[in-house]
Amino acid sequence: MSFELTGKLIEKYDTNQVSDRFKKREFVIVITSERSGMDFTDYAKFQLTQDRCDLIEKYNINDEIRVFFDISGNKWEKDGKVSYFTNLRAWKIEPAGKGDQTPPPPDPFADGAANDLTPPPEGPAPEDDLPF
Fold first, then answer.
1. What's the whole-model pTM score?
2. Which CATH class is domain 2-95?
3. What are the residue ranges in the chain where pLDDT is below 70?
């Protein structure tokens, strides 16, 4: 599953040659949003690998960019201790404002309202013609 975020580029690290066959490069964007009348700031660190390490090269600090990425998670064990880590693996970067500008759906809880916990109507369930 792919995701995308738009934010301001605030950090761009050098490429790190991890082994003779693997290299990576990281960068950070800041995402600001307003929810329920409050401003929120989030920082997302992304990882580029192999031939994608140069995707961030043409962007400068403070540029607004749109990052397309996948999420990967791994388990790591050492000396009997188990750790987990998550990577945001970027695979495409473009200037913000390029492409589809469909606004996100409205936040149903923006006005502080609770979930609609109304029970479903009584009676038999409608016929389902789906094959599964």
1. 0.68
2. mainly beta
3. 98-132
